[in-house]
Amino acid sequence: MTGTRWLDDREMAAWKAYLTASHLLERRVEEQLKADAGLTHAQYEILARLSAAPGRRLRMTELAHGVVVSKSGLTYQIDRLEKRGLVERSTCPSDDRGVLAVLTDRGAECLERTAPGHVAVVRELLIDLLTPGELETVTRVMSRVETATRAAAR
Amino acid sequence: MTGTRWLDDREMAAWKAYLTASHLLERRVEEQLKADAGLTHAQYEILARLSAAPGRRLRMTELAHGVVVSKSGLTYQIDRLEKRGLVERSTCPSDDRGVLAVLTDRGAECLERTAPGHVAVVRELLIDLLTPGELETVTRVMSRVETATRAAAR
DNA sequence: GTGGAGTTGTTCAAATTCGAACTATGTGGG
DNA sequence: CCCACATAGTTCGAATTTGAACAACTCCAC
């Protein structure tokens, strides 16, 4: 409590640049997905994760963890996606409490249709701006942040 | 439309790590500010920007631009902060349409009280995890992202 | 000056998010 | 077997965010 270690100029510049850019990027991605496919970024991530999962299905909790959204937030989004026929709910064979979110064929098609535009934006506004070395640094740094944040959340 | 340049493994790893970590970090920052001061991260950023501005005041539009929030979003947050006495609205002398958001003494005190805990989290979950070189890379990269995103938003 | 185009900030409805409370189910110790 | 405790998802209310529509004002060209 004696003294706070404030951010020096370099640190402050890094934090500010990170904050501003991450918000702008998120806004732009959200905007593109909404315009092109009527999807939230969260919804897109859900479809993408399911698509990559074995059997195109994942437990709700696991999915929420992966997408980084609250349990109730995931329930809400799965409701939306189910109403649009992009996802189905299925009971979990090994645990009666559990629910499996399953990607439907329509969901897979929607993802296929939407992915190119999404990837283009991600490239244009992030990936293609980085040298291979910078890309590697970003991966390393952000993995460290993930670890630290998950540890702090216990 | 012929072919999409998909993300290769390295690129995908970078994007995934970035996405996950940035969401987790945002969540944690939000949580800390809410618990310690009853503030949103957006609200904290507003107070911080005003505090650093000459005369502790900024035009609404300028502030919205800096904090990366929509005009209506800023109106809402300034309403909240005004009700708590942390910010005041003042007419702009040079432009009758304009509104100046002004940090009050109470607002400054609130910021002073809140800043140490906030900085601690930012350090713990980001800044202190980076080497000086990584810090510099993050700043450089994210500045580039900001430029690209703002350019794309015209 | 005057008209039209652009800016500024607010209002409004809709969508999304979260945490807390709740229901139902699994699990381990006695 | 049974109870206490932990886990899985949902429901609910509150807060926040956005874009579109709107009213008021500035500014420039004529």
Could you characterize the architecture of this molecule?
- Chains A, B: Keywords: DNA-binding.
- Chains A, B: This is DNA-binding MarR family transcriptional regulator.
- Chains A, B: It comes from Planomonospora venezuelensis.
- 2 copies of one chain form a homodimer.
- Chain A is mainly alpha-helical.
- Chain A has a single domain (20-152), classed as Winged helix-like DNA-binding domain superfamily/Winged helix DNA-binding domain (Arc Repressor Mutant, subunit A, Orthogonal Bundle).
- In chain A, 68% of the residues lie in helices and 8% in strands.
- Chain A has 6 helices and 3 strands; from the N terminus they run ααβααββαα.
- The first copy, chain A, has helices at 9-37, 41-52, 60-67, 71-83, 105-125, 132-152, and strands spanning 57-59, 87-91, 99-103.
- In chain A, strands 1-3-2 form a 3-stranded antiparallel beta sheet.
- In chain A, helix 3 (60-67) crosses helix 4.
- The longest helix of chain A has 29 residues, at 9-37.
- The two termini of chain A are 23 Å apart.
- The mean pLDDT of chain A is 96.
- Chain B binds a DNA duplex (30 and 30 nucleotides) through residues 27, 30, 40, 42, 59-61, 69-77, 80, 92, 95-99.
